[in-house]
Amino acid sequence: MRNVEGRFDGEVRLAEPAGPEPLGDACLAIGVPLDAEDPAALPLARADVGRADLHMHTSFSDGWPSPGSVVDHVATLGDLDVIAVTDHDTIEGALRAAELAACRPDGPEVIVGEEVSSRHGHILGLFLEKRVRPGMSAAATVSAIHDQGGVAIAAHPFWRTERQARGRVVHGVGWWAAELDFDAIEVENSTPGFYLFNQMARRMCDGVGCAALGSSDAHIVDAIGRAYTSFPGRTSAALRAAIDHGDTRAHRDRYPAMALVRYAAWGIEHRRQRRVAAAP
Q1: Distance between CA atoms of 182 and 211, rounded to whole angstroms?
Q2: Rounded CA gap, 68 and 140, in Å?
Q3: For 244-270, how does the pLDDT look when each residue is reduced to its tens digit (9 = 90+)?
């Protein structure tokens, strides 16, 4: 695995901070305390720091909301500048959401994305122009994303890796996130029960010096924005520059009780549908 200088040495090394990060400087300049864990501190910096949720699903894959419902909900929330729709193995939902958002002045900027099912786990591709074929190796998937000018992100890398899957579908790329040329690692995923997976991802991300992202992985509208990425600027172009420079921060909010109930309902229905699909 790469260390902070990009060399493969087989162990995680946590980088010691050399000084304030660029985003930290911006926060200090506007009075946001660097040690504040409460994401509510960030709205003080709305003119300088944007928010993005870069992992969510619609009815074009296994999400409940339509692309239109996603755009409507984000516009109503009003606190996300950029979103990425990342349905499983398709960009059709993202294209539809981008089209709808462009028609309303209060809509978010929508990045066309996809959660690609590689053989080694799920990989987010952002800024895509065409669908990335599922079923390839993680290395080939990252290359295919980069070949069309996209950004490759290791999604929930430690959730059900190859070692943990035991015959089930593999979801997390695991240590491939450190060995391959990923642009960023998702270190905050707001799926209930992911605390340990997030902590492991954050430690690995710190060790390899990769951009850290927070994303909801929403399958219901209540989850949108529960985890998010802050970055200098408020556009997708500024977000991409922040990822390139490692100038991002990952955040996660708590779920209200009713949102957890609705997420549980989605999970029950999702498992039922999978059982039906697998039945002979």
Answers
A1: 9
A2: 32
A3: 999 999 999 988 888 788 878 877 877
280 half-sphere exposure, CB direction, 13 A CA radius: 0
Residue 272: its pLDDT value, please?
Answer: 77
Could you tell me whether strands 151-154 and 121-126 are parallel, antiparallel, or unpaired per DSSP bridges? antiparallel
Q: Mean pLDDT lowest for which of 80-89, 183-192, 193-202, 269-278? A: 269-278
Residue 92 CA to residue 234 CA, distance in Å, equals 25
- Cα Dmax for the chain: 62
Confidence (pTM) = 0.79
What DSSP line would sit under 150-194, residue for residue?
Answer: -EEEE-STTSS-HHHHTTS-----TTHHHHS--SEEEEEE-STT-
From the options 3.40.1400.10, 1.10.150.170, 3.20.20.140, 3.30.565.10, give the CATH code of 22-29+46-255: 3.20.20.140
Tens-place pLDDT, residues 145-154: 999 999 999 9
E-strand ranges in the chain read 49-53, 82-85, 109-118, 121-126, 151-154, 184-189, 211-215, 227-232, 249-252
Amino acid identity of residue 174, one-letter, is G
* Cα 41 to Cα 227: distance, rounded to the nearest angstrom: 15
Distant-in-sequence, close-in-space partners of 147: CB < 8 Å, separation ≥ 6:
none
| Residue 90 C-alpha from the chain's centroid | 16
* pLDDT bucket at 275, cuts 50 / 70 / 90: confident
Domain ranges of the chain: 22-29+46-255
Sheet of 109-118: strand order equals 211-215, 184-189, 151-154, 121-126, 109-118, 82-85, 49-53, 227-232, 249-252
Q: How far is CA 26 from CA 29, 47, 82, 230, in A?
A: 5, 11, 19, 12
